[in-house]
Amino acid sequence: MTSNFTHLHLLTSYSLSCSTINIDKLIKVAKKNKITALAITDHLNVFAAIKFYQKCIDNKIKPIIGCQIPVKYDTEGRLTPNIIVLCKNIDGYKNLIKLLSEIHVKKEQNKSAAADISQLKKYNDGLIILSGGRNGIVGSNLFSEENTSKICFVKELREIFSDRIYIQIDRRNDQSEKLFNNKLLMIAEELGLPLVATNHVLFLEKTDFDAHEVRVCINKKIKIDDRVNQSEFSDEQYFKTENEFKILFEDIPDAIENISEIVKKCNIHINTKGYHLPLFNTPDNSNVDIYFDNVVERGLQEILENNPDLNISEYKDRLKHEIKVIKEMGFVSYFLIVQEFIDWAKKNLIPVGPGRGSGAGSLVAFAMKITSIDPIKYNLLFERFLNVERMSMPDFDIDFCMISRQKIIEHITNLYGESKVSQIITYGTLSARAVIRDVGRVLGMGYTFVDRIAKLIPFSVGITIDDALKQNKELKKEYQNNEEIKNLIDTSKKLEGLPRNVGKHAAGIVVAPRDIDNFIPLYRVEESDEIVTQYDKDDIEKLGLVKFDILGLRTLSIIDRATKTIIENHGKIKNDSYIGLDDSKVFDLLQQKLTTGVFQLESSGMKRYMGRLKPDCFDDIVAIVALYRPGPLGTGMVDDFINNKHGKKINYEHSLLEPILSETYGLILYQEQVMEISRSLANYTLGEADLLRRAMGKKKKEEMEMHRKKFIDGAILKGINPNIASSIFSKMEKFAGYGFNKSHSVAYASISYQCAFLKTYYTSEFLSAALSSDMDNTDKVISLIDACEEMSITVLQPNINQSAFNFTSLNKNSILYGLGAIKGVGANAVNHISEERLTNGNFKSIFDFCERISLNTVNIGTIDALIYSGSFDVFKENRLTMKNSLHKAMLYGQQKQNSKNTGQQELFENKSESFLVSQEDDIDSSLKINDTINNRLKSLSLEKKVIGFYLSGHPIKEYQDEITSMSIKSIEYYFNQLYSIETDDDYSEHGTVSGVITNIRSQRMGQDQFINILTIDDSTHRLEIILFSDVYEKYRNLIKENEVLFFSGVIAVDDYNGDLSMKATKVIDMDSARLKFSKEIELFISPEHINDNVLDKIVSILEPHKNGKCPLTIKCLSNQHIVPLNLDNQWLINPSSNLINGLSDLLGKENIIVKYQ
């Protein structure tokens, strides 16, 4: 006889705070124990419902879907812990969806989500209620006074649910259990409610308890040893067997029998067949299919008219085939829906991308202007997108201008109705590296120790810890020989892959034909307070609902901004090569690695590959976009591709491969190539070839063996040797794991080419647009300003009389800094300044500025930022003087404005205008700040504070001649070394660099231990300096932002970003460097300085630095002769910064020469 035993209170890992139960493993345990029904009851969500349901059905297990829900049990709205709600049938499932949606959507701010009695009454049909166990409506605070009102609440539930409510009882062998359960039995009897045995299951095996506790601590962001109280959980909360349960509850057999009764009552069928598309209303109310045909035919006619050289029959045959498939699969409305909002975007001047993903392989999409990629021209396959042999929803991913993306979502929401549209949930998971770091932190292991182990996990998408143990011998050795590491890895394996957090999908929205909570429950994300679906994009697709990925792509905003500026400046864009994708000058730019700002091609690693590849055709860009990913990079495919392009002999195993693989120099790079090989060599249809591609990607052994036989049999029929066929299949199988979607690569490569074209021919306009789009990202701005310098374009400092909010292209050689990129200067302030400047002309001084602008709109913080940034340098006064005068200038401006506002101008002028006007015409000498080296350095430091970097000058320039004389190599030298070598894997060099510290940050290494990372800048490049705690402690007194320091250590490629970094072992400041390397100081006194007063000042400056080690020579310039002054040994000096700066301020920097060894 089949048993109906199961656990009716079980939380999966989708209860993010407290469960480790993976659904696949749950199914395995159930099958092992011959359990024929399973229930899940996650806390306030059914995230796992569809995955769980489908896997149960696939394994012939009855699925029971439920949820753990907090309830408000009295009028004061106090929360009890929980009740358990189980779906008795499909009506119950639909009501649970509605109930959860309403709980989340109507949740009040700063209050926890919970159900009240009216909601439970409203949605009770088809639901079974359990009392929630120890933390439930009856069990929580069982002996407190509150329990009376909770019992009343249970009585209300009894009235609503009748025979569909049960009192839970569990047993965990703890001390207070007997007293607790006796009270519970009395209440159940008093209420006349049946008992059901449960266990609040949170993990599968008893031995999983420790891993479960780590999971709880990861969620709480605490170390396991830092918990204040003993764990609220028990090691008894595992998936107990039926036999264990019968022994536990042998004195209450009804509690066991009621499990079976509930299982029998619960019978749910969720329809995962068919589609639920929103209705598309044609503009002329015509038949949808006829309207679709007309749109597509008109689109193709336009393509053929604009391109008379195309093969008309080829295009018409392809279009006919695609239309047939689209209609057979029922997706006509889908295409029209997508076309509608893309057309709306274009009409509203919102830039739209050329395509994305496999959708670019559709000629229908091209004809409808959904994409702008000709799939026939690039040998893209429709079957990669839609395949009658693989029934699945089409999926157009569409890029829009980042700035206007939200407008598209609002348009779709307005068109179909807010209740029918929702954004989609996404889950963050504990990946192999991430889980090791999290577990190590919770267990209190040191950062360096855990980081070393985490880095032994190969950097490969989707890799597991078990994979890593097989691939990395060092990791396996550590695991076998070190108990602490074994414990870390074993615990991590138990948590690996579990969901860690939820959020809003970056792009996905779902549109339903009716209110969305008829199909999908909604959820409120705690961190952002946003409403999203509870099902992810995969489950939404399984339910047959349509989703759209509305992506924001910043590059489209850049291209749009640049194009508008070009048209303003030049009237039109040079078009021929822009469309033709074959301009030699564009490829020259790429070959020179001048790709900062060029979409997909601007990373350090990509630049190095571009330099080696030397792309000379569009296909090369398509290929490098596909190749520059962790998988191909790890296999050496990129090197093979480059070598083959540059002359290495290519051997094709069969002549039929050459026309398919020639564009990728003999390598299988694209998924479409796998499909073409299957069709050409083994007589696969393209639909069958798509199934083979998918099977190879999923690496299903049985399916692959079936395809291997089919492939070889098909090849034999075409006269191909079976051994060669088998070898080709093996290569396909190997490379399919790294194969890329060519449709996507072509679409994105076209954007790359657009950027490269604009950068080549309209450099200033393009880079100013890129700077404007990324002005809130200091690192990006710095990188783009470097790119300007590479292209001989000067970025001029902000100018209050010229600058707009954005960066402005002044001419082909210069870009003006945007006021909006200054920290502390907002759009309202800039708009106000611009309007005043346009109305009344340029500002003449800081006093004129303060008189003419509203000091409420442009406050003192904004004016400070404008001064420090150099925006007021046009007033020909140094910045510190202007800052020193600001209070008076603002007082002057306020008095002027007040007098105008109150109509007392004449009285005001009689009394005090003479004083104020004198301030406007000439800043009081008492407020002036001298232009000394230290003050110039202070100004630069303040400039960096508001701009994020040094623009008008650089502190290192004050010391550049000396640093060069010390034979210190520039940071740029080391980067050039890196760029000049074939591979960066083993690049490492010991050296000394100098630079200004621009940023200091710390990362925790473990308890009370940190690693410190500095960014230094020497005006040629930037470099990250890594200081471990012992080195940092030794030199911490030297390490301050804006200090010029010297660092010695090993310079090597950073594992994460591909750039260089230094692990420093020694740090010295400028004074120490001078002392170490200097051999003599020479002072030159020009004729105008030769007087007793100057000599006295020199002596005064020198006096504190006497009795040092460095000889001093003073040379007087007289009548074109140099007259040295002989000094005795007491004038051996220490060449400190104070000394050098003081002498430079007195005599001029050019008259102080420090000679170095």
> By CATH's scheme, which homologous superfamily of the largest domain applies?
Metal-dependent hydrolases
Structural class: alpha/beta
| Strand-residue proportion | 5-15%
Q: What is the β-strand count?
A: 24
Give the helix proportion (percent range): 40-55%
**CATH architecture identity of the largest domain:** Alpha-Beta Barrel
Q: What is the CATH class of the largest domain?
A: Alpha Beta
Shape descriptor: globular
Protein model, in words:
- This protein has 7 domains: 209 residues, TIM Barrel (Alpha-Beta Barrel); 129 residues, no CATH class; 129 residues, Arc Repressor Mutant, subunit A (Orthogonal Bundle); 200 residues, no CATH class; 174 residues, DNA polymerase, domain 1 (Orthogonal Bundle); 121 residues, Beta Barrel (OB fold (Dihydrolipoamide Acetyltransferase, E2P)), CATH 2.40.50; 79 residues, no CATH class.
- It has 47 helices and 24 strands.
- The strands form 6 sheets. It has a 6-stranded mixed sheet with strand order 1-2-3-4-5-6.
- A hairpin with a 6-residue loop joins β19 and β20.
- α10 packs antiparallel against α11 and α39 packs antiparallel against α40.
- The protein is globular and about 115 Å long.
Using brief descriptors, characterize the structure shown:
five-stranded mixed β-barrel, six-stranded mixed β-sheet, alpha/beta
